[in-house]
Amino acid sequence: MSIEHSSIDYSERIPNNVGLANNRRLQRALESWQPNYLKWWQELGPDRSTGFDVYLRTAVSVERDGWANFDFVNMPDYRWGIFLAKPDLERTISFGDHKGEKAWQDVPGEYRAPLRRLIVTQGDTEPASVEQQRHLGVTCPSLYDLRNLFQINVEEGRHLWAMVYLLHAYFGRDGREEAEMLLERHSGDTDKPRILGAFNEPTPDWLSYYMFTYFTDRDGKYQLAALAESGFDPLARTCQFMLTEEAHHMFVGETGIIRVAQRTCEVMKEVHSDEPKMVRAGGAVDLETIQKYINLHFSISVDLFGQEISTNAATYFNSGLKGRFQEARLDDDHLLSNSTWPVLQVHDGRVIIEDRPALSAVNERLRDEYIKDSQRGVGRLNSVLESHGVEYRFALPHRFFNRHIGSSAAINVKPSGAVISEDEWQAQLGDWLPTAEDLAFVGTLMNRVTEPGKIAAWIAPPVRGVNGKPWDYEYVRFN
Ligand code: BYC
């Protein structure tokens, strides 16, 4: 491969720091994918966004001070490019059968298929999320939120570019075909759906969007962190850089949910009631409905870690393709040949904990980390309720609640963790997951607010604006 550096050359048709100009074949291949990408963005990217000047951050280098450069960008002229974190030429593989060997700069022949599958699966989620969110701009609660939506959308687009670069640069003809397919599958499409369940679910309103960016983007954090450990160095370096952007997406989710809950608390005071009906009449989302959204989005996202016991995951680990969260910091043999991990399983319709070989439980271990992290945000959300003197508390449902992947997919589990019959499940479903009526109510709140300094009545303004600007700054200028 060509010489790589940290700063990004924006004079090129495809901005990059991978020395694309020195590899004409690859450059031409990516340049022929580019118009298809732009066509996809026009058709399935953010609705009604063309011609706006949006205050966006664009990476100018992958150095600490270079990746967050803010300026107005006329949509859709955002410059999507290819940025890899700086190489560490001494890097060695830290886990699995190849532990201690030099990280690979090329794809090892024997791991070509599983590596391509991982990259395709990761790549598939990125445009999927843009598709899922495409109508939200039409009902934005404020200019600040509209700007954040576009920021996340352009970055997910760039994350797609990151995976497409790997496919084109390292996987030859089948890589190019996979890159085409990434633009052909679509979220929710019955014939050609996106690969993973969560990415075919609708994101119909802004509460769903904050939940998605809180819960589903957080899966992104954990999966990217596991891939950032990969022995395939270009993948590891791509994911390292993607992780810096992912943090902002989760921030939008967490602060979004907090702002919705805060406004609900204020309205509860205004209407002197905690009755959901009264809160709704006051123009806010009742806490019970927020909890149902948490239950839904948590359960959908928890499915993204695969089955509790996975031979795929064991193979990925053994082969050095995908590690554990912060692999290098873990204090063990990094081979997992003799260790076990406690795993929740369903046996005879009961939930039990079993020690299973740690190697086949690496997906479950990543899910454990994810759940701990998700729980921390719920704690912060509850502090908001507490600070308003509200007694209600949010909680994550049991990890087996509403699952479609893994050993609990075949049984019904209450948010508390108790196993129940199908009849009980059907009878109580509406208490735990958003009903059509809940969705319709939240839908009635979704009205577009685009005047600087104004915000929809169901959500509190953010504490801070973007990049030191006030929250009521004109983040989007309509031309
Ligand atoms: N839906 O052995 P298993 C993000 C399939 S999010 C449908 O249990 P494995 C982002 C699985 O593919 C991060 N199918 O687990 C967030 C397999 O199929 P095959 C995305 C599912 O293979 C917001 C079979 O079931 N990145 O970046 O270790 C906005 C048995 O699988 C699901 C990645 O996921 C599901 N939920 O695990 C934008 C990283 N779960 O192979 C972006 C790359 C499992 O038998 N992907 N299956 O046909 C992976 O590491 C793995 O593919 C998975 C699945 C962890 C997803």
Task: Report what the structure shows.
- 46% of the residues lie in helices and 7% in strands.
- By secondary structure, the protein is mainly alpha-helical.
- The strands form three sheets. It has a three-stranded antiparallel beta sheet.
- Helix 3 packs antiparallel against helix 6.
- It binds benzoyl coenzyme A.
Give the helices and strands, then pairings.
Elements: H1 24-44, E1 53-58, E2 69-74, H2 112-132, H3 143-170, H4 172-184, H5 206-227, H6 233-270, H7 276-281, H8 287-302, H9 311-318, E3 340-347, E4 350-357, H10 362-387, E5 412-413, E6 419-420, H11 422-432, H12 436-445, E7 476-477
Antiparallel strand pairs: 1-2, 1-7, 3-4, 5-6
Helix pairs in contact: 1-3, 1-4, 2-3, 2-4, 3-4, 3-6, 5-6, 5-8, 5-10, 6-10
Benzoyl coenzyme A (BYC) is lined by residues 118, 121-122, 125-126, 129, 156, 196-197, 216-217, 219-220, 223, 303-307, 310, 312-313, 322, 363, 405.
Question: Ligands bound here?
Answer: benzoyl coenzyme A
Radius of gyration: 23 Å
Q: What is the N-to-C succession of helices and strands?
A: HEEHHHHHHHHEEHEEHHE
Low-confidence sequence ranges: 1-5
As laid out across the biggest beta sheet, the strand order is 2-1-7
End-to-end gap: 43 Å
* Number of H/I helices: 12
Give the overall pLDDT as a whole number.
Answer: 95
The amount of helix comes to 40-55%
